[in-house]
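Budget justification note: compute hours in this period were largely spent on complex prediction jobs such as the one shown. Inputs:
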Amino acid sequence: MIKNHIFQKVSLFAISAGLLLTSCSKDNKELDEVANKQEVVAVKDLNGLDKGGVYFSLEKNRETEENSTDWDIKITGTTIGFGNGAVGQLVEGVLDSYHTAPTEGYSNSGITGNNTYYVNTLYNAPQHAILMKPGVLILVKTSKGNYVKLEMLSYYKGSPNVKTPDFADIPTRGEKWPKQHYTFNYVLQSNGTNKF
Amino acid sequence: MRFINCKIAAILLLHCAFSGEIGHVSAQTDARLQGQVVDENEEPISGATVYLLQTKQTEKTDDRGQFYFNADRGSHDLQISKIGYAKQQYKGTFGERKCLVFKLLRDSVALHEVIITATRTEKKLEDIPLPMTVITKEEFQQKGMVRLNEVLAEQPGVVLVENHGTGLQLQGFDAKYTLILIDGEPVIGRSSGTLELSRITMANVERVEILKGPSSSLYGSEAMAGVVNIITKKAVLGRQLGAAVRYGTHNALDIGVDGSIVGRKSGVYAAFNRFSNSGYGYADEAVGKTVAPFYGYTGHVNVDYHAIPKLDIRLGLKYNDEYAHDNYKTNTAVAQEMVSSKFLRRDLAFTPRVEYRFSDRHKSFLRINQSLYKTDTRIHVVEDGKLYNHDFFDQMFSRIELQHDFKVNDKVYLTGGAGVTDEWLKANRYDDKKEFKSGFAYLQADVEISERLNVIAGGRFDIHNVYDSQFSPKIAAQYKLLPWLRLNSSVGSAYKAPDFRELYLNWTNPTQGYSVFGAEDAAYKLNRLIEAGEIAEVLFDPARIKALHAERSWNYQGGVRLSPWKPMTISANVFYNEVSNLIETFVLATKTNGKSVYTYSNQEHVVIKGIESTISYKWRDLHLQVAGQYLRTANTTVQDAITAGKGYYTRDAETGTSRLVRPDEYGGLFNRSQYTGNMSMTYNCPKPGLVFTLRWAYRGRFGVRDIDGNGILNLDEEYAPGYSLFNASIVKSFYKDRITCTLSAENLGDVRRTGVATMPGRLFFAGISYRIIN
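Corresponding output:
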């Protein structure tokens, strides 16, 4: 389980606000308790570079082969595709405080393009970098029909600090932090409901 | 240099020679006293107020500068005044058929500056209820400045910014919101809203007036942040000829000649300037420079003709050419090719003007402006000479305008005007010739409600063939609380019309592949792309693209100007601007190549507020000025969302996970510094005839990038650090001030910023000017 300061802050805030607004605190606590029950799965540096893409089963939390019937998502370059009956969509939110998945709006067409879940910085510093957009969640309905909330964290191996001058240096960036190594967090609700 | 107006002096001349020649003296048989008021060139001054102290009578001089009183002959004390001239008291002995001639000298510009920009009429700087800065010829010559960008770089509330050229950010507004005028006529030719300031030479300039605050009530579109009006030199009677040259780092060479021949009825002023630079870069690259080598010419001719005493005609012609040449490697993914680029920019303005004075109370100005602006860039592949890219832009601006000034009485002054404008452009980034037709009318009343309170109120109505009609009102007041303390305040509204680019642009970036369409044609252009199968997904229904409205601002200002003791003046001004309907790009569709299709819409609502203060101190030969500005900006749409806790996220530094941006993290608009400051010290050492200046300009940190992908400024790493620039100069005058040598240095601290053309490192210049005929 990932230690999350923000989550603690949010909880603290909810509790302190609750001292003033009792009716409010009850709802928040209930939601927090629900959220606490699911585990945040952290996937680090999933290598999509060597084979030109990577297939991943969210249900089993492991990389699979292309011909497997398990995989829910495949990531090729900056495109996130869905397979084996899995569908997905983009929503706005933060992993910890996102509690209700929509039941509609999913599609099996891949998510791609600048300014979707990532930003291509183009000529803005750090130039020509793929940065994961904060506040964007990918919601997936797996092949088994379970809901998953997923946050992409990094496109580069080792999840480098993108604010440093080192990272801004394009010629050496690729050597230090090879691209297409995906780091993400996700939460799977295995009971089939859309509540996290 | 000889500065004619430097010293205030009044000379009483007792000439009787004129009296016999005055034709209509007999018509004034009952007038027992008569006299004439002339200026330093013996030209009659009309409309001067003559006050007889003993009898408490007041009269005005007529077109010949003459006045008549029904009073006893003999010795009288007189007081003669006119705006723009030093008020003087005289003693005169009036005899029969004797005409006394009184000479009235122009105010020293430095002391009681007469400003034209704020009200479109002549008004003393201290009486203007709006924040203004005036930079005189003396000042920029002492500081060794030769181009407009150098002059503006050191002014309070002004920051030079780079966006398709060097423009000025005035009180936190982008360059496109400041109107640039030369002798009251707009300068055309902007690239992405920026008018390249180095285009304008100071060689033929008398002074630069900067009016801060919305001025659409007089000038229409673009005057949202303010107006910079460049007043060219006025030729004086006789013959003059001067030459100046300045040479410095990067082989920056500026050569100028100007001269005039002025008679009693007509005069000609001509100036010529050549400006060149061998270019410079930041990295030591073998090829390709940040600023390519360039050379440019400016020519300026004014012909004045006083046809009859009531009628003045002036023909103005100004041209400016610039050529740049560079070799560099293309930077596309496909191939790296060596290319050679040739750039031409041409700017031509013909500005005839007629002034007719019906009487002391009525005068009219007819002004015509016919301007042409073009750029042409040709890029050839070096290897085979093949044309790689050709970019051209032709713009024409025509305006005819009639202004009438009516002095109702000593307390009420009305200024009104109306005109029509026709503007078109042809460019490769536009489908065909695009044209704007507009008309306008304005009215302003300057009312002296009491000795202490002066109110100026006015408004302008603009009608346009493409976007909505605009009405821009403004009211300003000055209250003299104490003889040394004045309070100013104003409320006004201004607008910025959608420009050709926002309405009609049709451009696909050849190397990046994205497309930008003006709002008027975007739906049609998008449908064409859909038909061509180039669109992957339409993200916004093109039928819902709305016609663009003008950007509109409301501005509130309040200020104080005080001079607690003579050598010191302090001014402080608080400003608050609310801008709505800001025009921004948005994504219309995604192309099959993964790139976006953009168009423009009215979206954002922005608040820009701040305080600016200047302290000026003169002690003997030392002049010290310190100024600072504190600025806060915010996109209110963004700010409201952040306050409500939605819409804007960042990544936690430790865990890398998303979280909401906190309200205190929001840094407002990009490229704005919260703190800016200037200091200027001028020491005029009269004995060896030396002038030293030392100046400092500070700019605090400013947002330059978005690292966390939320599109807003919220991380410390998203700011560029602040910097200080130090400039200095030494001026030595010889030979009755006819020869002036100048040594100057810019950016002594050698501050460099990649990509900031205004900061190419330390620069040294040496210059000499010579008044060949005085």
